[in-house]
Amino acid sequence: MKIAPSILSADFANLQRDIKIVEDAGAEYLHLDVMDGHFVPNLSFGVPLIKALRPNSSLIFDCHLMVSRPEDYISPLAEAGVQIIGVHYEATPHIYRMVQLIHQAGCKAEVVLNPGTPISVLQELLPVVDAVLIMTVNPGFGGQKFIPETLDKIAQLATLKKAQGLTFEIEVDGGIDEKTSVLCQARGATVAVAGSFVFESQSPAAQVKLLHKVTGE
Ligand code: DX5
Ligand code: ZN
Asked: Which residues on adjacent β-strands are paired with residue 6?
């Protein structure tokens, strides 16, 4: 699997250092959790911080928007150098338009589903998305416990992907560690987001390498 460390659990006073550690350890993506204190009950960081980090890393920047008006953030994120923008299905009445806006801004489009939202809502979107992010915890906070019922959703999505001959990435986010990553991969997930498992450890580099090792890359 591709590994996407989430800086939500990194040392905010040493973000550049922490990003370099996971980049040198072989991570593919950097997962950036933007929260507005409205769509989710927590605040994190926004575009200016992402813009400041961009020149110091070659990682693919994958922004997970947990905000109530995602349309307001798409152009600024693209201009800040983010390559993948993820919008929650639950955050907008116009998810198809969000995908179009993301593509118009020159980025890859990712649709994110909360644990309580079924895969069936994606039916019309699957041919046009570049990635689907399945939340394996409720969004808003790092360090929560993996919700096992989400495994079946990953399998359902992977079945649809295969049946339609599509190539979008299947990302998982929340409670990912050396065990849950393997369970998700077995159902068809291709990208593992990991926050606390990577950064709240003695060696973030060793944790990235361990995730690669257990998921066969
Ligand atoms: C939660 C965020 C996650 C978070 C994951 O809303 O979307 O990306 O950083 O943290 P862990 O890996 O600790 O569950
Ligand atoms: Zn996230």
From this structure: 31
